[in-house]
Amino acid sequence: MMRAFFASFLGGSTLRRNIIRIVGGAASGQIIVLLTSPLIARLYTPADFGSLATYASLLSILLVAVNLRYDLAIIRPSNDDEALRVLAIALVCAVVFSLILLTIVPVLVPLISTLMPQILAWLLPLGLLLTGIYQALNYWAVRRSEGGVIGQTRLVQSSAMVGIQLLGGLSGGTALGLGLGYIAGQAAGVGRLFRLLPMRLWIVLTHPELLSTALKYRQFPLLSLPSGLANIAALQLPTLFVAHNYGLGVAGWLALAQRILGGPLDLLGAGVSQAFMSELSRDQSDTITIRKLFDSVARRLAVLSFPIILIGMACPTIFTLVFGPTWRESGIIAALLSMMYASRLLSNALSQTLIILDKLKWMFCLDLLRLSLVLAVFAIFNSYTYIVLICAYSVVMSISYIAYFMIARLALQHHIPMIVGKS
C-alpha cells in the first residue's frame, strides 16, 4: 500500500523506483516509531525527552564535521576507484574526529551538565563514530543506486531505536534509555551497508593517491563544512536555546513535536533528495531531463504542503488525546512548526541540487544568512514566552527554505556542466 502511494504520487521511472526503495522501507520504520510513541511518551517525562533532544542536537552538529564533508563528495567522481578513495578518506576522518572528541569530553561535561546527564555526554564520541561511519557508507549506497538497501537500513534503525527505548522505559525510564536507543537507531544498518563495499577498500586506505584525492575535493571541507555547520546550527540551536532558557521540560515538548511531525516529513525529504542526487550524478550534462525531474518532483511535493499545515492545526487536540494532557503543549509547538516543515520538505528534497551543480559558495552564503536570521530571532525574542519564540523561528525558517528552493531552481536554469574543483 505504501509503495503504491509513492508510485502513483511521485512520477518518473528510475527516480521513482529509487524514491520508493529508499522511502518505502524507511516509511515502515517510521510507522513503528509513530505507533510506539504514545507508549514511550508515557514511560518517560518531558525532561527526559529534553535531555535526549539536547544530546541529539549536539550530535547532529558534530556529525556535520565528522567526515569533513567528504561523504558528500562520494557521488561526484566519474569512476568508482576514485569514489572509493573519497569514501576511505571520509571513514578515516570519522575515526580521527571521534577520538579527538573522546579526549575533550572531560572538559565538555561541566559545560553541559545542566542540559543532559553526564553519561550521555560520555556517549557522544561513540554515537558520533557509529553515525559518521553510517553516513559515509550511506552515500556510497546512494552512488550505487542501492535504494532498497538504504530503505532496509532505515527500517532496522527505527526498530533498534524503538526496541531499546521501550526496554529502557520499562526498566525505569531515564534519559539514558532514550539516548542509547537514539545511538542504536542512528548506527544500526552499518553492517548491511558494509556488504556493498568491494574488498579493495582496505587496499585503498594505503593508496598513494589518497592525499591527492583529498586535495582534489578540498572544496568540501573548505566550503561545504562551514556551510553545513551554519545550516545545522540554524536547525539545532533552538533546541539548545530552549533547554537553556525555558528548561528541559519545554525542550522535551519540542522534541516530541519534532519526532511526530518532523520525523516522517524529513524521512520523505531525505529519500527524495538521495534518489534525486543519484539521478543527477549519473548524467550531469543532460540539463533538460534534470530540469524536468526537478519540476516534476517539486510540483508533487508542493501539493503535500497543504495537508501538512492542516494536520499541524489539529496537533494540539491530537497530541492531548494520543499522548495525554501532559503533552498538549507539544501539540501546540507542532502546530506552530507545521508551516516550517511544509516548506522544509520542498527545500531539503531539492536544494541538494546545488552540490551537484558545484555551487558550494552559494550554499555557504545561504546557510550563513539563515543562521544570522535565526540568531536575530533569539536576540529579539529571548525575553518572550517560548510560544512566541518558536512561532517567530518557524516564520523565519519557512521564508529561508522557500528562498533556498528558488535559488536551487535558478541555479539549475543557468546550469553549466560541472568541472570538479571549481565553484
Automatic annotation (TrEMBL):
Q: How does it sit in the membrane?
A: Multi-pass membrane protein
Major site of localization recorded for this protein: membrane
Pfam families given in the database record: Polysacc_synt_3
* Localization in the cell: Cell membrane
Reply yes or no: does the keyword Glycoprotein apply: no
The UniProt entry's GO CC annotations, sorted and at most eight, read: plasma membrane
Q: State which residue ranges cross the membrane.
A: 20-40, 52-72, 84-113, 119-141, 162-184, 301-324, 330-350, 362-381, 387-412
InterPro entries per UniProt? Poly_Biosynth_Transport
Which keywords label this protein? Answer: Cell membrane, Membrane, Transmembrane, Transmembrane helix
Annotated PANTHER family: O-ANTIGEN TRANSPORTER-RELATED, PST FAMILY PREDICTED COLANIC ACID TRANSPORTER
The name this protein goes by in its record:
O-antigen/teichoic acid export membrane protein
What organism does the UniProt record list as the source?
Answer: Deinococcus humi
Species lineage, top-down? Answer: Bacteria, Thermotogati, Deinococcota, Deinococci, Deinococcales
